[in-house]
Amino acid sequence: MKFSTDKHEKYVVIKLDENKFTNDNTPALKSEFILLNTEGFRNIVLDLSEVAECNDSQDLSCLLVGDRLCKSADGIFVVCGVRENVAQIIKMSNIHQSVTFVNKLDEATDLIFMEEIEKELRGSVDKG
Q1: What is the signed CA dihedral for 104, 17, 51, 95, rounded to 10 degrees?
Q2: Given pLDDT bands bounded at 50, 70 and 90, which one contains residue 81?
Q3: pLDDT digits (tens, 9 = 90+) for 33-77
Q4: Could you tell me which of 85, 37, 95, 91 has the C-alpha nearest to residue 62?
Q5: Rounded-to-integer distance, Cα 9 and Cα 54, Å
Q6: In the Cβ-directed half-sphere of 88, how many Cα atoms lie within 13 Å?
Q7: Eight-state DSSP code of residue 49
Q8: Structural Rg of the chain based on CA atoms
Q9: In the chain, where does DSSP find H-type helix?
Q10: Alpha-carbon distances, residue 82 vs 34, 64, 96, 105, 115 (angstroms)
Q11: Residue 62 near residue 29 (C-beta atoms within 8 A)
């Protein structure tokens, strides 16, 4: 499975460099989510802009793994760059009801920064 990882202070971006999302490449993606989570990354962005094809909603279950890991670490999992073919399968599988989707990478990073600021503000209110 080909993907690139771009680590930042508050989040990490994983860009899937594959044309197809299949059950052949999803185990590696799940492993990467787990690895990043154990490294302390609680905010993960998955960029699917290169992915044009997904034939089975079962393959998308790894998105739920990423979402669950981030939520348990008090973070957020965001998927961006979903093409129309993949979006239809996401809708049919109801994954969009659990996982956060945005159109572009900059929207995903904005969302993460807004969440982080909100947590900091809540933290300072709780302490004060």
Answers
A1: -70
A2: very high
A3: 999 999 999 999 999 999 999 877 788 889 999 999 999 999 999
A4: 95
A5: 31
A6: 7
A7: T
A8: 15
A9: 26-38, 61-72, 84-93, 105-127
A10: 22, 15, 11, 11, 22
A11: yes
Tokens of 4: 């690139």
Instruction: Record the tokens describing residue 45, joined without a space.
Output: 């962005």
Cross-strand partners of 80: 47, 102
Q: pTM for this one?
A: 0.92
Identity at 38, one-letter amino acid code: T
Q: Which tokens is 61 given?
A: 């279950």
Token pair 């572009």 is found at 104
> Which of 90, 19, 31 has the alpha carbon at shortest distance from 66?
31
Measured CA to CA, the distance from residue 102 to residue 16 in angstroms comes to 16
